[in-house]
Design brief:
The protein is an all-alpha fold and 48 residues long. It has one helix at 2-32. The N and C termini lie far apart (87 Å).
Length: 48
């Protein structure tokens, strides 16, 4: 019975660990996809 409980917990932890690893991988992928640098806004000098 203890072995069954250990296997059940192990399976639950495997799913949780896999989910966490997937989230970490997704963060790395999103962080590596840097958007193109935005063009500097044209600033017109206003002189009166």
């Amino acid at each position: 019975m203890a072995a069954d409980a250990a296997i059940f917990v192990s399976k639950r932890l495997q799913r949780a660990a896999f989910a966490i690893l997937c989230l970490i991988a997704a963060q790395f992928v999103l962080a590596s996809c840097e958007p193109e640098p935005a063009a500097m806004a044209a600033r017109a000098a206003v002189s009166w």
